Amino acid sequence: MTNVDNKVFPSAKLGVEEEFLPSEGTYVENGEVRGSLFGKVFIDKERYKANVIPFQKRKLGIKRYDKVIGEIINVGRSSSRINIKYINNKPIIPDLSAIMHISDTSKEYVSSLDDLYAVGDIIRATVIDAKTIPIQLETKSNDGGVIFTLCEKCGEEVEKVRRDLLECSNCEHIQKRKTAIDYGNVNIVAEF
């Protein structure tokens, strides 16, 4: 027995993993099955699967190995959500949804993503899978990571003092981030 429900938006909760298995047009975040695109929900009750059928297929204009710039909108322990604003230094409208798993952030061991990134950070990343939505990103290369952020205490600009350590010029707060090699030398106005 199958069922087609109403419209859903990207990241809308469809259920939990105990109810449905994720399938096309869905993903799992913190045990919840969520829609990854705008479309209609298709629930297959016999196979316990949740799908989202897109209203209209569109070409994303993004491919593997493209360099993107985006804003981190959510940081969990093992994954982060990013709104892509630029592809290969060209602005895009609307933003594209992307995700980055902890294993794709650094060549070194990382115990939690909040050690490397925070909501509001502007990052440069490389696309590793453009066939899925959300798009999969990685920041393992030297040019991947935070290219701009503000102090998490007072909101002022921060400067790189050592590899992956930033200091606020106003309150002297030290914060850890996975920074791109050119952090502090990126023209944000031109690129972002």
Description:
The chain is an all-beta fold and 192 residues long. The protein has 2 domains: 2-54, RNA polymerase II/Efflux pump adaptor protein, barrel-sandwich hybrid domain (OB fold (Dihydrolipoamide Acetyltransferase, E2P), Beta Barrel); 67-191, OB fold (Dihydrolipoamide Acetyltransferase, E2P), CATH 2.40.50. 2% of the residues lie in helices and 47% in strands. The protein is built from 1 helix and 16 strands. It has one helix at 188-191, and strands spanning 2-8, 13-16, 21-22, 26-29, 32-35, 39-44, 49-54, 67-75, 79-87, 90-101, 122-129, 135-138, 145-148, 158-162, 165-168, 174-176. Strands 8-9-10-12-11 form a 5-stranded mixed beta barrel. A 4-stranded mixed β-sheet has the order 1-6-7-3, with no helix packed on it. Strands 2-5-4 form a 3-stranded antiparallel β-sheet, with no helix packed on it. A hairpin with a 2-residue loop joins strand 9 (79-87) and strand 10. The longest helix is centred in the last third of the chain and has 4 residues, at 188-191. The chain is elongated and about 60 Å long. The N and C termini lie far apart (48 Å). Mean pLDDT is 85; it is low at 1-5.
